[in-house]
Write a structure and sequence with these properties.
Number of strands: 0
Structural class: mainly alpha
Shape: elongated
Distance between the termini: 49 Å
Number of helices: 5
Radius of gyration: 17 Å
């Protein structure tokens, strides 16, 4: 697997998250590859692991951030949290 294949597969796996989150994640990993240099492409892939493993971490982070945002909103607006729990 090379960088292009890795990134293409990662993008496919992140298709379920919002475009802005996906673009941020893909940009981060593209930058990571760029900084390592073309000569270290296979080393980077080895260090990162499979695209599936990377996607799993990203999806977990996105899900955790979504939960944190909901909790933060409810703590600032307790009436919404109370209404939601009564439904």
């Amino acid at each position: 697997m090379n960088r292009q294949e890795f990134m293409r597969r990662l993008e496919e796996l992140l298709n379920s998250i919002p475009a802005s989150e996906r673009e941020d994640a893909l940009g981060y990993y593209n930058d990571y590859f760029d900084e390592a240099g073309e000569e270290n492409e296979y080393q980077v892939i080895f260090e990162l692991g499979s695209p599936e493993a990377v996607a799993e971490k990203i999806l977990a982070d996105v899900q955790q951030d979504s939960g944190s945002e909901s909790e933060m909103f409810e703590s600032r607006n307790p009436q919404y949290g109370a209404q939601a729990s009564q439904k």
